[in-house]
Design a protein that fits this description.
The protein has 356 residues and is an alpha/beta fold. The chain has 2 domains: 5-41 and 263-355, Aspartate Aminotransferase, domain 1; 53-261, Type I PLP-dependent aspartate aminotransferase-like (Major domain) (Aspartate Aminotransferase, domain 2), CATH 3.40.640.10. The chain is 41% helix and 17% strand. The chain has helices spanning 5-14, 41-54, 64-76, 88-100, 115-123, 141-147, 169-178, 231-241, 249-260, 262-283, 307-316, 341-355, and strands spanning 29-30, 83-86, 107-111, 128-132, 153-157, 182-186, 207-212, 225-228, 290-291, 298-302, 319-320, 322-327, 330-337. The chain has a 7-stranded mixed β-sheet with strand order 2-8-7-6-5-3-4, with helices on both faces. Strands 9-10-13-12 form a 4-stranded antiparallel β-sheet. Strand 9 and strand 10 (298-302) form a beta hairpin. The radius of gyration is 21 Å and the shape is globular. The protein starts with a helix and ends with a helix. The mean pLDDT is 96. The structure holds pyridoxal-5'-phosphate.
């Protein structure tokens, strides 16, 4: 029997994989999702307890987003009229793609790029021009400049997930300045990197810089992302495209309090950078591994033929990392999030027991 349009649509969506979440392991040493366990649990407990006191969830959070935006403005030193928010930066990226891109809009990005972004492009049949990373997991700005005139949107995560690569500030600024279409720079890991280009939105109308409290603030479960961009886009995004109440009252109030306590975030970022160096140096001791430098809160390494064995053995011991397999010529890529000192030591000891 001929399928109706609804069934055909379901079949079409079924053929798209969707974003692959990591496997759920009970009580795992969770080093698979670039979360931040270094920021003390007390930080979260304090802000959520205070947020509860300030909240009445019988009401819609009228005016809440506006107060949160004022706080983000103070934190970023960018005018409130140039700031918008979303249910995680995922939702911001999704709303931009679903409303501004079509099947003929070409998106220039890297390969690999942020997995969710790529999946969303697949969902909307948006074609990608994807510039591959070199064997050393680096990008060449010239490859992007060559393709710039063929593309409508430039999307780069800076630093990149999963490689940890970040262009020099000078190079990225040059690329943004020379691109004529819409530029989306995803700074989900910006605090762990060398710089932010958020200030460029004050002079570049075609630039949107997306940021989040999921990573550096350790608030992935709150689902709070934001962007900075020109006033007109921000106004349309917040008043036409975005839902009337995109964030819960608890998220809004907790977000305001977290931003007031940004010193805790900065301390944890410093700690993570120290541990990142330790993990990279330790992994480099294994001749069989190729370890890539990182400007984010994770490290990518190629464990070559041993990667499946390492991934499974770690999982059996309750240590969850991300199995990425082949990236270009690197065939056994694994990505490990930088956790607390204790979590990282567990990971490094397990690797030593397996290979030492
Ligand atoms: C590059 C990049 N952008 C955005 C996100 C999504 O962050 P959020 O939790 O704000 O949706 C992630 C999360 O892994 C990411 O890696």
């Amino acid at each position: 029997m001929k399928k109706n349009w609804f069934e055909e649509k379901i079949d079409m969506f079924s053929s798209i994989g969707g974003y692959q979440k990591p496997e759920f392991l009970q009580d795992a040493v969770k080093l698979d999702s670039n979360e931040n366990y270094v920021i003390p649990k007390q930080f979260q407990n304090d802000i959520i307890a205070a947020a509860r006191k300030n909240s009445d969830v019988r009401e819609y959070p009228l005016g809440g987003v506006e107060r949160l935006i004022q706080m983000i403005s103070k934190f970023t030193k960018i005018p409130a009229s140039m700031i918008g928010v979303g249910n995680g930066s995922d939702q911001i990226l999704d709303l931009i793609l679903s409303n501004f891109a079509t099947k003929t809009t070409k998106v220039l990005t890297s390969n690999p790029t942020f997995g969710f972004f790529e999946e969303r492009c697949k969902l909307y049949s948006i074609p990608l021009i994807a510039i591959p990373f070199s064997n050393e997991m680096k990008l060449d700005i010239k490859d992007f400049q060559k393709e710039s005139s063929n593309a409508d949107i430039l999307y780069l995560d800076s630093p990149n997930n999963p490689t940890g690569f970040q262009f020099s500030k000078n190079e990225l600024q040059k690329l943004v300045k020379s691109f004529n279409g819409l530029v989306i720079i995803d700074e989900a890991y910006g605090e762990f990197g060398d710089y932010s280009i958020a200030n460029m939105v004050k002079t570049h109308e075609n630039l949107i810089v997306v940021q989040t409290l999921s990573k550096s603030f350790g608030l992935a479960g709150l689902r709070l992302g934001y962007f900075v961009a020109n006033k007109k886009f921000t106004n349309v995004f917040m008043n036409v495209l975005q839902y009337p109440y995109p964030l819960s009252t608890i998220t809004i109030e907790s977000g305001i309090l977290a931003l007031q306590k940004s010193k805790s975030m900065k301390d944890s970022v410093n700690q993570i950078k120290i541990e990142r160096k330790r993990i990279i140096e330790n992994l480099k001791k294994y001749d069989d591994f190729e370890v890539f430098d990182s400007k984010a809160n994770f490290v990518l390494f190629d464990a070559k033929g041993a990667y499946k064995r390492i991934y499974s053995a770690l999982a059996e011991q309750g240590i969850s990392i991300r199995n990425l397999g082949k990236i270009g010529k690197n065939t056994g890529c694994l990505r490990v999030t930088i956790g607390t000192k204790e979590m990282n030591s567990k990971f490094l000891l397990a690797i030593r027991d397996l290979l030492g």
